[in-house]
Each structure stands twice: as structure tokens, then as C-alpha cells.
Amino acid sequence: MIKIVGISSSPRHEGNTDFLVKEALAAARDEQGVEIEFISLAGRNIQPCDGCRSCRKTKTCHIEDDLPPIYTKMEEADGIIIGSPVYFGSATPQAKSLIDRAGYIQGRRGDTFRGKVGGPIVVARRAGQNFTLAQLLFFFLVTEMIVPGASYWNIAFGREKGEATQDKEGVETVRDFGRKVASLAKKLST
């Protein structure tokens, strides 16, 4: 069974980012033989990387917080989707902490994300979406993951909870992306 994990790095529960990541996962689940899991970072303690480099020796992070079980799910998944709202023109601190630490740990464990399928989803009120998309995309590229295309960039617009549901093109784009993540992960597993 193919497993796709979708992570929302929004600090708001049930906001636009949660909605979009869940839409991508629902579309991925429509592919036969695909299991999905949604993870919200809202209310979770994910500390930033402190640059100590202890992961080079121990292959784990010394920081005691909520990252280890999330990281394990990422490592076990065939596909990873990470969504972030735009905060002051870039990804949320939660997203940055997640990708920095997960990226270092996976590299010390033998590049365990290499060959997985995935990519970013971004929601913006008005601007900053291109930089945020690129910022998250770099994580997928540096960890040697495979990022499928979609019908357009994986971006939707909305500020208040529920507004992104009105961005029909954005919703369909993330759904298309979710289908492509699942389809490609299945092809690579055979």
C-alpha cells in the first residue's frame, strides 16, 4: 500500500492550509491502493534547528519536542506534501523548523527521503506565494525527492478561514497535484 502524508504548517486549526492539504490528500486517496494521513502542526512544539550538528553523530536530533513522531511518518511515507500559508512573504516558522530539521536528519540517515514523491502547497492572502512556494520546493529538491507538476502552481488564495474554498482554480490545482503525487508514487513502487 502506498502511503502519502500531508502536513499543514499553519498555526491555525482548520484554516485554509489545512483545507488545501486535505483536498490534495483526498484526491490522492482516490487512486486505488493509496493510504493517506493528515498532520497539522498547529499547537505542536517544533523547535528550530540550533545548528549543533549532533545529528551527524547520532542520526537523530537532540531537541526534545514534537518532531520525532512526525519525522518517522515522513520517513515511512512514499509521498510527502507540505502546505504553508504565507507569513510576511515566506513560509511559517513551523514549516521552516520542520524542513530544516527533517532535512538534516534524513541526510544523516542515508538520504532517506531520496526518491520519494512530494511537493509544496501554498495559500496566500495576496502576495508572497511565489517565494514561499520556491522556499518549500527547495526542501524537496535538496532532499532529492521527485516533484510532479500539476495543472498550475500549487497555490490558492484566501485569508479568513474558508476563503480558499472559493478559489476554484486553486482547489482544482491542489487536487490535481495530489492525484499526481499518488500516481507517480504508485508507478515508482512497481
Q: Which segments are poorly predicted (pLDDT under 50) over 5 or more consecutive residues?
A: none
Strand order of the largest sheet: 2-1-3-4-5
CATH architecture: 3-Layer(aba) Sandwich
From the alpha-carbon coordinates, what is the Rg to the nearest angstrom? 15 Å
Largest sheet: 5 strands, parallel
Order of helices and strands: EHEHHEHEHEH
Determine the strand fraction and express it as a percent band.
Answer: 15-25%
**Class in CATH?**
Alpha Beta
Number of strands: 5
Write down the overall geometry.
Answer: globular
Helix content: 40-55%
Q: What's the CATH H-level superfamily name? A: Flavodoxin domain
CATH topology: Rossmann fold
Mean pLDDT: 97
Separation of the first and last Cα atoms: 11 Å
In total, the number of domains comes to 1
Helix-strand makeup class: alpha/beta
Explain how this protein is built.
- The protein is an alpha/beta fold and 190 residues long.
- It has a single domain, classed as Rossmann fold, CATH 3.40.50.360.
- It is built from six helices and five strands.
- The chain has helices at residues 16-29, 55-58, 67-76, 93-108, 129-142, 168-189, and strands at 2-8, 34-40, 79-85, 117-124, 155-157.
- Strands 2-1-3-4-5 form a five-stranded parallel β-sheet, sandwiched between helices.
- The termini are close together.
- The model has no long low-confidence stretch (mean pLDDT 97).
